[in-house]
UniProtKB/TrEMBL annotation:
Lineage start: Bacteria, Bacillati, Bacillota, Bacilli, Bacillales
Stretches that traverse the bilayer: 20-43, 55-78, 183-204
Family: Belongs to the binding-protein-dependent transport system permease family.
CDD domains linked: TM_PBP2 (cd06261)
Domain ABC transmembrane type-1: from-to ranges: 19-208
InterPro entries: AA_ABC_transptr_permease_3TM, ArtM/GltK/GlnP/TcyL/YhdX-like, MetI-like, MetI-like_sf
Keyword Repeat on entry: no
Keywords carried by this UniProt record: Cell membrane, Membrane, Transmembrane, Transmembrane helix, Transport
Name used for this protein in its record: Amino acid ABC transporter permease
Membrane topology according to the record: Multi-pass membrane protein
PANTHER family: INNER MEMBRANE AMINO-ACID ABC TRANSPORTER PERMEASE PROTEIN YHDY (PTHR30614:SF41), MEMBRANE COMPONENT OF AMINO ACID ABC TRANSPORTER (PTHR30614)
Keyword Transmembrane: yes
């Protein structure tokens, strides 16, 4: 194990550059998947004829496919139908679709957990279905969604490492290149990568706990 040379300034800079790509892909995917999951989950909750059923089939299909397969599809299959995506865009598309499907279930379950009595009371007081959904159901549902949503975001951040298979220059890709210089770098480089993942995920967990306390 060669810690001194493994953590040379050039190697550390190179690894951190990969980590910045990881954070960029994760951040964009989190935002997009949250928007997509919220829309799909809300539409499924409303049980619109046909729309809800079609979305349900799509969500179940995506949720039961390996994320790695979706990444490969976005990078190598879409060009066959004229959609060419670079490694970063392919990773973002794949992560957004997969995590969006997962988040849609969290949103749908969170909204469904609100007692029907509150909905009936709101409707009887003169609020429309849309107003009831926006002012009564969504605010309470979002509070209950915080823990599972943060857990899903943490999983998304870790799942970015799968994009190494399409040569996305993220943390694990750069770590692998550094390790390729000498196998004596393996433990220190992987330990550094683990620490970087841990710090970000731990901060997300702390943020989730504060949000839970705030909205309790």
């Amino acid at each position: 194990m060669d810690i001194t040379h493994a953590f040379s300034s050039d190697n550390i800079k190179f690894i951190l550059e990969g980590f910045l790509v990881t954070l960029e892909v994760a951040f964009i995917s989190i935002v997009l998947s949250f928007v997509l999951g919220s829309v799909v989950g809300t539409l499924r909750y409303t049980k619109l004829p046909v729309v809800s059923q079609v979305l349900g089939v799509l969500v179940e299909l995506i949720r039961n496919l390996p994320l790695l397969l979706i990444i490969f599809f976005a990078r190598f299959a879409l060009p066959d139908i004229g959609i060419k995506l670079g490694p970063m865009n392919a990773a973002i598309v794949a992560l957004t679709l997969f995590e969006g499907a997962m988040i849609s279930e969290i949103v749908r379950s969170g909204l469904a957990s609100i007692h029907k009595g509150q909905i009936e009371a709101a409707r009887s007081s003169g609020l429309s279905y849309t107003q009831t959904l926006w002012h009564i159901v969504l605010p309470q549902g979002l509070r209950r969604m915080v823990p599972p949503l943060v857990s899903q975001f943490i999983s998304l951040l870790k799942d970015t490492s799968l994009a190494i298979v399409i040569s996305l220059p993220e943390l694990m890709h750069h770590s692998k290149i550094v390790i390729g210089q000498s196998y004596s770098y393996t433990i220190p480089v992987l330990a550094m990568a683990a620490c970087l993942y841990f710090v970000v995920n731990y901060l997300l967990s702390l943020a989730a706990r504060r949000m839970e306390t705030k909205f309790a």
